[in-house]
Amino acid sequence: MEPWDLKDTSSLVRRQFGREQETLFRESSRAVNDRKAFSSYHFREAMRLSKDFERRHLSGARTILELHVAGAEKKELAFNVFMVKAGAHALAAIQSLHAIPDIFAHAVYFGAGQNLRPGALKDPEISLPRVAASLKKDKEFSGLSAPLTALQSGSDWKRLAAVANMSKHRSVVRAAYNEDWTGTKPKIRELHVSAFERNGVRYPAASLRDVLEPEYDRLLKSIISIGHELHACLRGRAT
Asked: Any bridge partners for residue 189, and if so which?
């Protein structure tokens, strides 16, 4: 897939709707890239902390249970500090990724000039579902509605959204350091998102990598595809 030339699309937005509209579009588009970068950074830090802790305190250990025996108090303290840091990065990575669809919806909303139409949404009302509904009614940009809606319908999105919302509104879904004793997994020790329940749905524990990577890759590809479509719509409108 070819990269999305944001600069060219911004130029089309300016020509179609004016410089102020271009500024709104660029600010939200930049925030999407910021959130992607933040999510990647926090994930990498969580992985780095895990490797560093294992190298420092688990080298030669048969099991993490050895951290909790008499005489291992310093290692146990180091483990607790590690879990606070890694847990903070894990949750920050998830929450930054979870924020992307709504931020990108703002970018599309402004890029398609929807805020200039009669009955435009007020700022607090702008969200992905309402932007998709607005686009559906605009024949020039209606093709953007379905793919935008699909941003929040990935097979792994439900879990990621549940973690983010549960941690924001009710209680933090904590990170856990999992040790596989079955011998069936490629990594013996791995940072996990703990099991939790939200709205009657039980989510089992899962590795942080498995929670983040599929949705990160899917969102990235979808955003580029929608960006190309927005560009094509703007170009068609200009001609």
From this structure: 179
Q: How many CB atoms lie within 10 A of CB 167?
A: 18
Query: In the prediction, which pLDDT does 238 show?
Result: 75
Write down the pTM of the prediction. Answer: 0.91
State the average pLDDT over residues 96-122. 96
* Cα distance between the two ends of the chain: 25
The beta-carbon contacts of 55-62 under 8 Å, at least 24 apart in sequence, are 58/189
pLDDT at residue 60 in the model? 62
Q: Which amino acid is at 144?
A: L
* Residue in 6, 82, 13, 17 with CA at minimum distance from that of residue 46: 82
* pLDDT tens figures, 25-49: 999 999 999 999 999 999 999 999 9
